[in-house]
Structure formats: C-alpha cells, structure tokens
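Is it possible to get an amino acid sequence alongside its tokenized fold?
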Amino acid sequence: MAELSQLVGNRIREFRKMQHLSQEELAEKCGMHRAHIGQLERGEKNASLISIQSICHGLQITMDELLYGIMPDDDATTGSSRVTDQVNQLLKGLDEADQLVIYHMLVEVLKLKS
C-alpha cells in the first residue's frame, strides 16, 4: 500500500489538475511556495493539517472532499467515489443553468441505458 502522504499528494494533484491550475498558481492561492506544493504532491513531505486546510481553501473544496476515499478500505465501501468527486468538481465550476442542462442530459442518457 502506498504511503499516506503519497495518497494525499495524489489527491491534491488530481484536484489541482481538474481545475487547470499549475503548482505555482495553487501555491499562490494557498500562501505557500510552489516547491512545497510539489513536495506534497510527490509524497516527499507530510502535509500538516494547516497545510491541508490551506490547500483545500485554495482549491475551493472541503477537507472531506480531499481526503474521502483515499484509503483502500474507503474505496471498497464507496465504490466509484473518486469519479463522483471528479464530476462534482467539474459541476462546481458551472453556473446553475449549465448544471441543470447537464443534469437533464444525464437523465436522458440514463433513460437510454435502461
């Protein structure tokens, strides 16, 4: 099993890339140095709770969103939580009208599937 620091780092990188942010842009939003963000993403440094809180603030996500499902036991009970997290993150960037359009599209796709 991967080290916890690497699992957390992977999630930070996933959320950062979903938002099309560079390490430097995220670091600026968090009040951190870019090199520190890189070390956290690679699992070279353990993230403190203060760092995690700052990163979540910079990514505009909750700590729960960042940490949910990172442990293998969590994945077994949550199924596709990672995909759900990614979809939720993409929807967050849209206004309510666009979210509603996507919702209706999804409903129609699911009707075709059944």
Q: What stands out?
A: The helical segments are 4-18, 23-30, 34-41, 49-59, 63-67, 72-78, 81-92, 96-113. The radius of gyration is 16 Å. Residues 96-113 form the longest helix (18 residues). The chain has one domain: 4-113.
